[in-house]
Specification:
Blueprint (H helix, E strand, L loop, with lengths): L1 E5 L4 E2 H7 L9 H7 L3 E2 L2 E2 L6 E2 L4 E4 L3 E7 L3
Parallel strand pairs: 1-7
Antiparallel strand pairs: 2-5, 3-4, 3-6, 6-7
């Protein structure tokens, strides 16, 4: 499982997809989520605006498993 470090309180699922190179631009997030299954904490998720916080686990079949962690100040 790859760790994704964030500086803010949360990031959106669309931002995560771009950070992990699952998509090449933010505008592709809606299409990607319609065509591919993405799981957040074991539940199917299709909202690109879903807020991901420290401790959330994301699985993108074909791209990998990711865990959100808060970067220490």
């Amino acid at each position: 499982m790859e760790e994704i470090m964030i500086d803010s309180e949360f990031i959106t699922l669309g931002q995560l997809l771009k950070m992990t190179d699952a998509i090449s631009s933010g505008g592709m997030a809606k299409w990607f989520l319609q065509e591919h299954e993405v799981f957040v904490n074991g539940e199917l998720e299709d909202r690109r605006g879903r807020k991901l916080r420290a401790g959330d686990a994301i699985m993108i079949p074909g791209s990998g498993r990711f865990k959100i962690s808060q970067r220490e100040a």
